[in-house]
Amino acid sequence: MPIVSLIAKPGTLDPALVDNLRNAWGGGVAVWLAMDEAAEFPVATVAGNFEDIRASLADQVDLNILPDQGRQKRMLLADMDSTMIEQECIDELAEEAGVGAYVKDITARAMNGELDFDGALTERVALLKDLPESVIDTVVKNRITLMPGGKTLLNTMKANGGYCALVSGGFTAFTSRVSGLLGFDENRANTLIIEGGKLSGEVGLPILGREAKIEALEQITARLGISEADVVAVGDGANDLGMLGRAGFGVALHAKPSVQAECALRVNHGDLTALLYLQGYPKADFV
Questions:
Q1: Which residue of 47, 136, 170, 218 is 20 to 30 Å from 35, comparing CA positions?
Q2: Residue ranges of E strands in 43-154
């Protein structure tokens, strides 16, 4: 039986809303994974008006449909920028270079699928030429913050035998640090070329974009001997759509509109712990 999942900001999920939807859709007993935050109930079939109701409630709750089997995944495949961290690293580097506003506009358009990813990345990195290598540490220390819930997500999945991979269209100079902070098992990203202690304005080839994330999904699942259905993938940009579409659970987290439109699972109110609720973990089992 399909499972209807409701996730909201802590303290804002109204039990009356859960009961009203359950009654309207002929659902079974509601299970609260976290009081006033996350609940779910089974239904015999998905209601024909589900998408309409989902849209009408979008400003207060994340409403998703899930299978009742195979929910707890064996691998997490995560994007980094605006997913595991709250910023876009290249935008923060650009601020240090004095071209922040210009680069942010390109980034937003690229993440919404309006621009070619490789070309947009090459153009933005060129604007960072001659920044001192030390700017990376400065940005990490002063500008980068972790997305809430990330540590709990990884700790809980790893405690239950999960494998966690960070795959980014950003840069290894950042993924290596974020990976270490959160406990990822491996990380993949692009390389900023540094010459004479300064950024050269170039990125190592080949550029890791949408296809590289799909390759990571294929390669890592094959190595672990698991299927793509055993993976929960999370991201926010157009270059994440390939892996989101292939993974068992592909979650659009605070994603660009064009990305949400192509993803069945969407999280806009919850933090990264929402990925645990989607897998059926109650808050009491978080690590």
A1: 47
A2: 62-66, 75-78
- Name the catalytic one among 79, 91, 236, 271: 79
**Structurally, how many domains does the chain consist of?**
1
Q: Tell me the whole-structure pTM to 2 decimals.
A: 0.95
Active site residue 79: yes
Backbone dihedral region for residue 82 (phi beyond 0: left; psi -120 to 50: alpha; all else: beta): left
81 carries an active-site annotation: yes
- Give domain status of residue 91, yes or no: no
For residue 56, the enclosing domain spans 1-69
Q: Give the CATH number of the domain where residue 32 resides.
A: 3.30.70
Pairing of strands 3-7, 38-42: antiparallel
- Residue of 106, 73, 83 whose CA lies nearest to 189: 83
| Domain-embedded: residue 6 | yes
Q: Classify the phi-psi angles of 253: left when phi > 0, otherwise alpha if psi is within -120 to 50, otherwise beta.
A: beta
SS3 193: strand
Residue 21 belongs to a domain: yes
| Residue 20 within any structural domain of the chain | yes
- pLDDT tens-digit profile, the chain (287 residues): 999 999 999 999 999 999 999 999 999 999 999 999 999 999 999 999 999 999 999 999 999 999 999 999 999 999 999 999 999 999 999 999 999 999 999 999 998 889 999 999 999 999 999 999 999 999 999 999 999 999 999 999 999 999 999 999 999 999 999 999 999 999 999 999 999 999 999 999 999 989 999 999 999 999 999 999 999 999 999 999 999 999 999 999 999 888 999 999 999 999 999 999 999 999 999 99
Between helix 100-111 and helix 89-97 the angle, nearest 10°, is: 160
Amino acid identity of residue 252, one-letter, is A
| Active-site option among 14, 62, 81, 230 | 81
